[in-house]
Design brief:
Blueprint (H helix, E strand, L loop, with lengths): L1 H8 L8 H17 L3 H5 L10 E7 L4 E6 L2 H14 L17 H12 L1
Antiparallel strand pairs: 1-2
Helix pairs in contact: 1-2, 2-4, 2-5
């Protein structure tokens, strides 16, 4: 996929913090490799990750809970990110201050991938 390849290039972009590059790559890879909506992706918590996918994902306006599998490439990216992020409970994707990543910050990641 072109978008995953573009995101992968973020891992080695000069002048970037390593954690930011890994996080940017991971958020795009997980989005594309799970089929989650942006709001579902940004709402993922570490305790939902079971090593093969995500459990108890709220979909369609918080009405249904579902288990969401992830491909091998997405899993590999997520495991690398979790190694960098640490095992502290809370949101998987955060701002540099540890807060939930919002749609605006996600859009900034997408803009970096487009470049």
């Amino acid at each position: 996929m072109r978008n995953v390849s573009a995101a992968r290039a973020l891992l080695t972009s000069p002048g970037r913090d390593v954690n930011q590059g890994v996080g940017d790559y991971t958020i795009i890879a997980v989005l594309l490799e799970t089929g989650l909506r942006i709001s579902e992706l940004l709402g993922l918590d570490l305790d939902q990750w079971n090593g093969q996918g995500f459990t108890r994902v709220r979909i369609k306006g918080n009405r249904k809970l579902k288990t969401v599998p992830i491909t091998a490439e997405g899993r590999k990216a997520l495991e690398a990110w979790l190694k960098e992020r640490g095992d502290k409970l809370g949101p998987i994707f955060t701002t540099s201050h540890g807060h939930w990543l919002g749609r605006k910050q996600f859009y900034e990641v997408v803009k970096r991938v487009e470049r």
